[in-house]
From TrEMBL, chains A, B, C:
Task performed by this protein: Catalyzes the phosphorylation of the hydroxyl group of 4-methyl-5-beta-hydroxyethylthiazole (THZ).
Functional pathway: Cofactor biosynthesis; thiamine diphosphate biosynthesis; 4-methyl-5-(2-phosphoethyl)-thiazole from 5-(2-hydroxyethyl)-4-methylthiazole: step 1/1
Keywords (A to Z) from UniProt: ATP-binding, Kinase, Magnesium, Metal-binding, Nucleotide-binding, Thiamine biosynthesis, Transferase
Listed name of the protein: Hydroxyethylthiazole kinase
Gene3D superfamilies: 3.40.1190.20
Record GO biological process: thiamine biosynthetic process; thiamine diphosphate biosynthetic process
Organism lineage string: Bacteria, Bacillati, Actinomycetota, Actinomycetes, Nakamurellales
Gene: thiM
EC number in record: 2.7.1.50
Binding site for substrate: 33, 182
Pfam families: HK
Amino acid sequence: MRSSSPLVHCITNRVVANFTANVLLAAGAAPAMVDDPEDAEVLAGVAGALLVNLGTVTRAQAAGMRAAIAAVNAASPTVPWVLDPVAIGALPLRTGLAAEFARQGPAIIRGNASEIGALAGGTGGRGVDSTASPDEVAEVAENVARSLGSVVAMSGTVDLITDGTRTVRVTAGHPLLTRVTGVGCALGSVMGALAAVTDPLTAAIAATAMVCLAGETAAGDGSTDGEVGTGTFAVRFLDALTLTPADEIAQVLRRPVPSGSAA
Amino acid sequence: MRSSSPLVHCITNRVVANFTANVLLAAGAAPAMVDDPEDAEVLAGVAGALLVNLGTVTRAQAAGMRAAIAAVNAASPTVPWVLDPVAIGALPLRTGLAAEFARQGPAIIRGNASEIGALAGGTGGRGVDSTASPDEVAEVAENVARSLGSVVAMSGTVDLITDGTRTVRVTAGHPLLTRVTGVGCALGSVMGALAAVTDPLTAAIAATAMVCLAGETAAGDGSTDGEVGTGTFAVRFLDALTLTPADEIAQVLRRPVPSGSAA
Amino acid sequence: MRSSSPLVHCITNRVVANFTANVLLAAGAAPAMVDDPEDAEVLAGVAGALLVNLGTVTRAQAAGMRAAIAAVNAASPTVPWVLDPVAIGALPLRTGLAAEFARQGPAIIRGNASEIGALAGGTGGRGVDSTASPDEVAEVAENVARSLGSVVAMSGTVDLITDGTRTVRVTAGHPLLTRVTGVGCALGSVMGALAAVTDPLTAAIAATAMVCLAGETAAGDGSTDGEVGTGTFAVRFLDALTLTPADEIAQVLRRPVPSGSAA
């Protein structure tokens, strides 16, 4: 990714647009945020990847998403794209859009267990409730991946990435990653950047490792949750994305995963 | 607030959405920014508090605000909400919206003397001109609070918070707080987070103390205005919100207030 | 600028709105972001300068831009404004808007060689292709400046600023300036702030010197591109804008320019 600097077209939420762009630039990719349907259609067809994030979606923005998804699917070869169904479930507009978009072939769907469960329900499968065991949660993710033909990346204490057949767990990260807005949304954009240069399963795994390791580096070696403020943490997180060598990131994937754990 | 992590639904301006979310996360609350009217109506009814900030309001965003305000007022029990009438006075769209929304029962109205004065004028009271004395300014704030049944939090060199009967002044803060965009807007969101767990007057006072003290901590002990850059200041401000113990924040409220001073 | 603190009305892209506001505040100006056509018309007429940036333009935002441009041109005296035609060329909505707006008398047009070339093509001149020599690129910029009556500021390894008759090159900056989103967009806003207090050619040159020098300061003295992360760089960049004395900025303009170089 760092050598080819893929262009990632992001139609994303207004809260995290700046942070997402800075994460992509730090990681070596090139962000472009274009929402207007007419312009989005042109850009999506020539980008290396597309991100569709529903975090602050409105009907106006959804029109741009539709145009961009149609363009990436019509391109030859098709352009890989990532769907991030932020906070779907109870909110009607975004829940409907997620169900509509999920059927249009995203390379990767990224969300937490609640969002992936809501997507499962919305596309005819079974959801995730709070009593679900780790194995049951993993099964929901695998079912979504198989039924939609997408890689599913489910974030949590342990991250789970699956194409429905192969399932990988990543044990990395830091609690402060949940105290800076937009880390998960930016992770989706990095998955897109990597999907521009490799297969979706590898892209989702490598992006997760990269972002989680940057979080660990940002928190510092001997620190606990309370000792680094979120302002300093966010600065160091971008620094780590800029400076961490690729071989250190790859090491994250060789860590053992606790038995019985899931997303 | 840190133990219950209230969900604050923010319909706020595009300049400060990211900073507001990070301030809420640093302070221990959970932000959610949803503008679409259909989704905003659902979210507002289940949130701990709502923030309506007019900083970059458009007619499209105003529709989401109307839906959210109706939902919080229809919820049982009602959800407290904060109105921040940014830059009202000369600009017609936002000035009209502020007058409309102010009559719908915000728990807290947060603004500077000019904005509170404009709101007074728009709701039939007397405004604030540049020749007003501190006592006259305080009287305008108290009249607005009484006529609308809201707590009014008027920011300035000295912050003034009043429910129309009881008036509290907070002497804290630092000039650099005005050199980082969105501090006042984020303060409104923290007032919302605290209003989810206590009464509006206490919430407005405690939020003001928390934000002002974080500004002092960020500026550093021996510094003057010119010695800390605004980049470092903003990072340290978020760090201070993350790390400052609650009992230190409470100390701010025991400081003496200079005689004759007002917002 | 630091003494008069000019109000800069920015109708700019959602990715960089926060960073632009913080850059203006750090540099001593006062930002105001208002997109709604009704409010934008009132604000633009009383601002010190207007910035129109097409980075995430939609048809809704374009309506606010049209209203604001009409207001600055109708004001007496007229208010100077800056056009930043971000990523025009292939994208139809923004390319058409840039051609429309460029004919309405911007004091300064700021962009890279590709954008200025696209503007030249769209207004009947000759574009810039990748085989163009530095002298050919400079000629395109000078032709655009003369045909539109605007100062053209073309960013690149060497920045070129011209009013069509006088052409100045600024040799300053650092590669990390391209790894933080919105530096170029924020530069346009600083040009606006300075155009509120001096002539457009001087404003564009001084803003370029200020932003480039802040980038050098942020990167640190002995550093190379890889040693400072982009998080730390962005913080130090704002610090440098806050703290660098004006006479140091002026020194940048006395540097020799490499022979044969252009934007």
